[in-house]
Write a structure and sequence with these properties.
Low-confidence stretches: none
CATH class of the domain at 7-60 and 105-162: Alpha Beta
Strand order of the largest sheet: 4-3-2-1-5
Distance between the termini: 27 Å
Shape: globular
Radius of gyration: 17 Å
Mean pLDDT: 91
Number of helices: 5
Order of helices and strands: EHEHHEHEHE
Strand content: 5-15%
CATH architecture of the domain at 7-60 and 105-162: 3-Layer(aba) Sandwich
Length: 163
């Protein structure tokens, strides 16, 4: 029998709605199971914890071969159609409506919940420097901005998950 997972470190690198939620859901699930968790936001995933961006995340419709209409199991959406003005807004509206039906909270509320449950939340220093951000740009749940080396140090003994 395998040993149970005790710690997870989840890297979120994509800033689209469907890129951010897997990490949030996995972190929440870990905490619900009593597993220690930390989230590390890098590159555009950092948008999920930036105050002025976190409430405006959208579904990526261009270059998303899994995009289906009128629902997630419908026929595939040709890539060129994702570029039609309003498609991202519409896909985002549809996804948020479906998430609301099954009580998945908005990003800001979800981060608050996860952090309150004991999940540590970090931003990537290289990305923060590259995007010219400061600690003031982040939501209050961000515990700090750390280097990749510090992330690995904090992740010692963890399962590292890249979403």
């Amino acid at each position: 029998m395998s040993e149970p997972i005790k710690r997870v470190s989840i890297v979120v690198s994509r800033g689209s709605l469907e890129g951010v939620y897997p990490g949030l859901i996995m972190a929440n699930g870990a905490r619900m199971e009593g597993i220690e968790a930390q989230l590390f936001f890098t590159f555009f995933g950092l948008h999920a914890v930036v105050e002025k961006k976190m409430d405006k995340l959208k579904v990526a419709t261009v270059g998303n071969p899994a995009m289906c209409v009128p629902d997630a199991m419908g026929p595939g959406l040709p890539t060129w159609m994702g570029a039609i003005p309003g498609m991202s807004w519409f896909a985002t509206w549809m996804m948020k409506k479906e998430m609301e039906k099954i009580d998945i909270p908005p990003v800001r509320e979800f981060l608050e919940m996860i952090h309150d449950a004991g999940c540590e939340i970090y931003g990537c220093k290289a990305t923060v420097d590259m995007f010219h951000l400061t600690q003031k740009d982040f939501c209050p749940q961000v515990d700090g901005v750390i280097t990749v080396g510090e992330f690995y140090e904090k992740s010692a003994g963890s399962q590292i998950i890249f979403t």
